[in-house]
Amino acid sequence: MVIGSSAGGLKALTAVIGKPPGEFGAAVFIVQHISPEHHSLLPEILSDTSHLPVVHPQNGDKISSKKVYIAPPDHHLLVEVGHVRVVRGPRENRFRPSIDTLFRSAARAYGPQVVGLVLTGHLDDGTVGLQAVKQRGGIAVVHDPDEAEFASRLVKDPSAAEAAFATADELAIETRIAEQQMGTEELIAGIEAIGTRTLFTCPSCNGALWQIGHDEPLRFRCHIGHSFTANALLADQTRNLENALSSAVRLMEEKVMMARRMAERRRAMELSEAAASYEQYARHLDREVSILRQLLIGGNATRYVLPADENEVQGE
Questions:
Q1: What is the Cα–Cα distance from 49 to 199, expressed in whole angstroms?
Q2: Which residues of 195-209 are buried (b: 16+ CB within 10 A; e: fewer)?
Q3: Phi/psi at 28 (nearest 5 deg)?
Q4: Alpha carbons 275 and 27: distance in angstroms, whole number
Q5: Residues that are catalytic
């Protein structure tokens, strides 16, 4: 069983892990989105409510039934036949650990033996991975939106999920990208084999992005291996645009201060014409800075809203 959750997921995880059925004999793998800067207490928290042992695994640990493996902070958790991999591969949908990465690896390794469960959370990390589980013959389960604390990542109808990328070869390529087992030429050749190059750039590394397949959700991956759904890409582009505007405001404010300092020096030197020129330049820059500040404060340059009939996140 592979489980993915994000915002609001602790309560749901406790309910799922705390009371497994008596005949339960599966190994459980969990990705819970957590800040990479913080130590995860999730094994201790779940151990208090579960009869199953709960651990952060080490890379290469053998898989045991009736045991819960939780992805450590800032590391992907992957499933291979008989053992686990814990690696710091490229982020997917801005996350490491990534739900998609776990689900994809489990689908590749165990096919119809996998049960994939997506719990509450923001954005759509887990949707693509759940499609892979379904396509490989596994069982796809989602948290009831009426019970989920954050319902934005739940797929509309997992029974209808179709994903052309979920062939054995394509799953192998994407799993190996997460494991960072490819050289540069092999990596690019692999991405070229499953995707189409676009004019977009990766918000994480500024590299080229390839569109992976043509099914929903729309997905992109760069030559480093960073992966995004369209929603995650929009969210990162929004944040990068805000950061760029903030940098522009800072640089222009520095130019205003420098121009006024130059004006003061010219006045001290009794060069009134030059001082007036610098002061005029400072006032011109100040007006432009005010425009940029209004864009940032009002959010007009960074806010986006998707069509109301889309079952997608409408920004951050």
A1: 49
A2: beeeeeebbbeeebb
A3: -115, 135
A4: 75
A5: 6, 33, 125
User: CA-CA distance, 199 to 264, in Å (whole number)?
Assistant: 47
Nearest-10 Cα torsion for 180, 222, 162, 216: 150
Between CA 33 and CA 240 the distance in angstroms is 21
Residue 173 structure tokens: 């390529």
Tell me: the pLDDT tens digits for 107-148? 999 999 999 999 876 667 888 899 999 999 999 988 776 665
Which positions ≥6 away from 111 have C-beta within 8 Å?
136, 137, 138
DSSP string, 116-127: EEE-S-SS-TTH
The answer to whether the predicted template modeling score (pTM) of the entire model surpasses 0.90 is: no
- Taken in order 28, 29, 33, 38, the sign of the CA dihedral is positive
> DSSP secondary-structure letter at 62?
B
Contact indicator for 299, 108 with CB cutoff of 8 Å: no
pLDDT tens for 267-315 read: 999 899 999 999 999 999 999 998 888 877 766 555 554 444 444 433 3
d(CA 116, CA 228): 20
Euclidean distance between the first and final Cα of the chain, in Å? 31
Is residue 54 within 8 Å of 18, Cβ to Cβ? Answer: no
- Verify cis geometry, omega within 30 degrees of 0, for the bond prior to 72: no
